[in-house]
Amino acid sequence: MKSAIRLTVALMIVLALGACKSAPEAQPEAAPTPSAPPPVDTSGAPDPRDYTDARNFDNPESLLSKRVIYFDFDKSTVRPEFRGIIAAHAAYMTAHTSARVTLEGHADERGTREYNLGLGERRGNAVSGLASAQGGRGDQLTVVSYGEERPTCRVSDEDCWSQNRRVEIVYTSR
To answer: What global pTM score does this model have?
Structure first.
């Protein structure tokens, strides 16, 4: 019986010591090693008038970043304020012979479906003709007409209609 008591007391002492075991010491965190700074682009911003530089597609100061030509009601004549945009894209196509462009012609909702498809095609062909005259090759340009099928604005008023009378310049290959 004495040995059973001794064994019980010994077991309680071991359990008590185990319960009092202190937490492991926290290891000091190693100071982070300084990493090399990311490389800095020292080439400078592209010249917005360099229409051969593809970086200008994302430069809002460059005409290459503008890819929509707007038209007057029932007209397919390119307005003078958009001729510079077409010239910039023609210069890019001249410098990059692998560039391919789709000219998407659009019209507002007025007129029949067939008429608007024809008007969108005439508008696309007008932009294509100017781009070709300024150096873009015919095999780089494709004209597609969506007529009134893809409006950017769906309100029936003049402001909205003027946004839908357009040709979008879409690069399929730069």
So the answer is: 0.72
Q: pLDDT per residue over 8-17, tens digit each?
A: 766 677 666 6
Please tell me the total number of residues recorded for the chain in this structure. 174
Three-state secondary structure readout of 91-143: HHHHHCCCCEEEEEEECCCCCCHHHHHHHHHHHHHHHHHHHHHCCCCHHHEEE
Q: What are phi and psi of 152, to 5 degrees?
A: -90, -20
- Residues of the chain below pLDDT 70: 1, 7, 9-11, 14-44
User: In the block, which residue shows the tokens 């890819």?
Assistant: 67
Specify the DSSP element, H or E, that contains 145: strand 141-147
Strand ranges of the sheet holding 68-70, from the earlier edge strand across to the other edge: 68-70, 166-173, 100-106, 141-147
How many other C-beta atoms lie within 10 A of the C-beta of residue 82? 19
d(C-alpha 169, C-alpha 64), whole Å: 10
